[in-house]
Structure formats: C-alpha cells, structure tokens
Design goal:
The complex is a heterodimer of chains A (380) and B (73). With 380 residues, chain A is mostly beta strands. Chain A is 5% helix and 62% strand. The chains are: A mainly beta (380), B mainly alpha (73).
C-alpha cells in the first residue's frame, strides 16, 4: 500500500518535467555561480560537566559551490558541491557522578565530508519541477539520494507542490582509535514525501503549508555513541525503524511603508520515537535600506521531548534492549539569534551572517555554538 | 501510528483549500509578493548549511529533496 502511494506521488511529481518540454511559454534561466564559506564552532563544555576526555571545542569549516547552468529555454542544470572539514572530540556517554557528567573521547576526530548534488530544474508558466541526485562520502560513511518535486501554479495566487525522495546510507567498520573494537557494517534507507500549497491572502500577504512524511529503516543507532547500562559501557542501540511527520506553516507579510517583510514559520513535528511533539518557531525581519542593502535579524525557538528509550544512564537494562544517552534524544529547548547583511550589486550579491545558538536541558553534553558565513553570488 | 491518522485531517484541509483556490480566481497586483524577501522558501546556500547543522543537532527534521545523510556526531 505504501509503495503504491509513493509510485502515484512520483508520477504526479514527475509529469511536469515532461510537460514543460513542450510548453511554448517557458521562462528563461540565467547562469549563476555562488561560493560560500562558513565556520561552525561549538563552545567547549564547562569543566564541571565533563567526567573525562578531551574538552577542546568542536569545529566544522564548510566550502560550498553552487552553479546554475541553463541547458535550454526551459531547463537548467545545477551542481552543488560541499566540502566539510570537522575536527574535535566527540561526546561518548554519560556517567552518574554527583551530577550527570559527560565522557568525551580522548582523541580528536579529523574527518572530511564531500557532498555533490545534481539538480535538473524545469520551469514553465504553470509549473516548476526538480529532479535531484546526490552522493555524499566521508570516513566510514556513504550516502546516495534522489528525489523529484513539482510545483503547480494553479492560479496567480495559488500553488500546489509535492515531491518524493529516497536515500540509502552505508556505514562501514570504524577503524578509528576511539572505536578500536567496534565492528559496524550496516545500512539504512529513507523514503519521504511532501505535499503543500502556497496561497496569496492579499497583495502583501502570502501563506504556505507543507506536510512531510518520512520513514527510515535500517541501522539507526549511532556508532560513535555508547551508554552506561548497569555499570557497564555498551554500544548505543536504537529501534531499526522511525516514522516522522513534519507540518510546516509559513506566513510572509510585506509592509510597503517600511519596505520590509516579516517572516513567521512554525513547524509541528511528530515522531514515533518521541514521547510528545516538537515545535519550532522562526521569526525574521527583512529590512530593505535602498541601493541593494538588506538587513535580516531573525530569532528561532526549538523544543523537543525525549525519545521513549532515552536515558542519560541506565541502572538496569531495558527489556527491549534499547539504550541511548545521546543528548540529541534528550528533552531540551534551544534558542538562536542571527543577523544577516546582504548587498546586491549589478551582477553579484554579497552576504554575511552570524548566528549564536544556545541549548538548555538536563543533559551535560548539550552544546552551544556560533555559526558564521560569507557568500558571494555572481549572475551572468 | 496515531500521527498518520492526524495527518489524514491535514490532508483533507489541504485539499479543501486547493478546491477553494480553483473557484475564486482574482487578479491582484502581485508586485510585492514577487519580491525575493517574500519567498516562502529561502533557498540560499546559508540556509542549506544551517538546516544541515540543525538536523545534526536536533531530532526534528524535515524531508527535502537533495539531502544526503551524514554520520553527524
């Protein structure tokens, strides 16, 4: 039943790719080249939260290239190449001391991740479609992905969008000194679909709603994590399937007198791993200053409940055999604030942004981080 | 499975709105709505990397095409 539904969605989403080939009123694409450099830097954990191990800060630097190349009047090819370099220790498990304390790895992970995505985008007056193929590789990990999505402009003020996507990931045996006796040769696959619409409520107000569904099967444990179970350190063990639904509401309000736009985004997330639902709110103010200058302050609030099998440590093993003390499965709130400045010149756009993120919860390994980036986009 | 049943109502709501959209065509000036800052999806490079970070630090994720998995520790 699930496969039949997905096949139908795939056909509906793929049809505009064929239809736009014979559309006589196609929109023209432009060549575009973009580069972005970004730095993600975690704050080191407070020393009173660390039981043992290396407490250096964890960092990721990212170089990203994005090229749009017109193939004909209706179609463009897009290549997105991302390279991440990660360095720093990783949190392993939590021990019950006087308070909860995090055990970090003694050694530092040095890893590179390369991700290439190829998109074929087609536009017509009535629809837009994308066929996407992706491949990512890093030490001990490979991921293949693909998807198709379409947007139908049913009128000048109402659009419907839908899509399906799939990914297959492979995790190899870890040969790092941290995991000297950990043998992993596993895989997982994800199937997802989304359906949504956008609707103009007036000349200055736009509303959108999208519902995403995904199911992931396979090895979903984290091979880099362990758990303290009845005084013994054991490997992280999670269920081998997860279903997730994400419902997203988006509202855009333009204010002509201020030459500004307000963004409100709300996400309601449901997962069969979580005790309750998770909420995310994004607020942003896009202020134009003339001569191509724009300032965008934004604020984000996120909360999540704990996974039903999560515990910082276990006095006795669970009957179902699951255990995970990963902070990402604990209950916590997070707030972040970002300031972004963009300047549009005749043929290129320069953008710089800085974000600070702070997480609050009972887990000692919850991280605060900053994220900075600068990007340049050239249009030909 | 209960969230799948909840999603049925969301789907019905979505379809109802789609049908409303097919019956009341109007010709508003779309000048403001076409501005980049009014886009529902800020398809920027920064957003792509930022989403990837959020997905590696939080449980809640949204499915999108062109996103590969990672061993994000």
């Amino acid at each position: 039943m699930k496969l039949k539904t997905c096949k139908s969605l795939f056909l509906i989403a793929f049809t505009p790719l064929l239809m736009t080939a014979i559309n006589a009123h196609a929109k023209a694409h432009q060549s575009q080249f973009s580069y972005q450099y970004s730095l993600y830097a975690e704050d080191a954990l407070a020393t009173n939260k660390v039981f043992s191990g290396n407490n250096d800060a964890y960092e990721i630097t990212t170089h990203l290239l994005d090229m749009h190349l017109p193939l004909n009047e209706t179609t463009e090819g897009q290549i997105i190449l991302t390279q991440e370099t990660r360095s720093g220790p990783i949190p392993l498990y939590v021990v019950p001391d006087v308070t909860l304390k995090q055990v970090m790895s003694d050694a530092s992970i040095e890893d590179k991740r390369t991700d290439i995505t190829l998109n074929f985008n087609r536009k017509s007056e009535k629809s837009e479609s994308t066929l996407s193929l992706g491949y990512a590789t890093e030490d001990y990990y490979q991921s293949f992905s693909g998807g198709v999505s379409s947007k139908f402009h049913l009128s000048s003020w109402f659009s419907l969008q839908l899509g399906v996507n799939y990914s297959q990931d492979y995790i190899d045996t870890l040969e790092h000194e941290i995991f000297i006796d950990r043998q992993v040769d596993e895989s997982k696959k994800r199937l997802g679909a989304f359906l949504g619409f956008s609707y103009a409520l007036g000349q200055t107000t736009m509303v959108g709603f999208t519902s995403n569904y995904s199911v992931v099967d396979g090895y979903l444990s984290d091979p880099y994590k362990s758990a303290w179970v009845a005084n013994v350190v054991v490997e992280d063990a999670r269920p081998d399937s997860i279903q997730q639904v994400s419902n997203n509401l988006q509202i855009r309000q333009y204010i002509p007198s201020l030459n500004a736009a307000v963004h409100f985004d709300y996400r309601y997330f449901i997962s069969d791993w979580l005790f309750e639902n998770s909420n995310t709110i994004n607020l942003a103010w896009h202020q134009n200053f003339g001569n191509g200058w724009m300032l965008i302050p934004s604020f984000r609030f996120y909360d999540q409940p704990a996974a039903y099998f999560y515990s910082p440590y276990y006095n006795v093993a669970r009957n179902d055999g699951y255990n995970s003390s990963d902070y990402r499965l604990s209950a916590f709130d997070a707030t972040s604030a970002q300031l972004k400045l963009t300047k549009k010149f005749t043929n290129f756009t320069l953008s710089i942004a800085h974000e600070i993120y702070e997480a609050k919860g009972k887990h000692p390994g919850l991280v605060n981080y900053s994220f900075s980036n600068v990007s340049l986009t050239k249009t030909f | 499975m209960k969230f799948i049943y909840k999603s049925r109502y969301l789907f019905l709501l979505l379809m109802s709105l789609a049908m409303v959209g097919c019956t009341h065509a109007k010709t508003w000036e779309l000048e403001h709505l076409k501005k980049p800052e009014m886009s529902l999806h800020q398809d920027t490079l920064e957003q792509k990397v930022s989403d990837h970070i959020d997905q590696s630090k939080e449980t809640a994720t949204s499915v999108s095409i062109g996103s590969s998995g990672c061993s994000c520790y």
